[in-house]
Amino acid sequence: xxxxxxxxxxxxxxxxxxxxxxxxxxxxxxxxxxxxxxxxxxxxxxxxxxxxxxxxxxxxxxxxxxxxxxxxxxxxxxxxxxxxxx
Length: 86
Description:
Elements (H helix, E strand, L loop, with lengths): L2 E6 L5 H4 L2 E4 L17 E3 L14 H5 L4 H6 L11 E2 L1
Parallel strand pairs: 2-4
Antiparallel strand pairs: 1-2, 1-3
């Protein structure tokens, strides 16, 4: 089942102010409100998971990246928190 990301349109609780994830079927109707506080939410376009076939070289593994560079390159920084709400 796909995992969709949502975020409050405005206001909201601690749960929906930031991105939160919901496991839903592909044909399921998107959420329109936060399951905790009822604030209006919108489904976000998530970046796809891309698997690198060739490992990074040892030199590339040691390179320090800014959070912006890491986000642009699809690395760990910037991902939604690792919790799933059903």
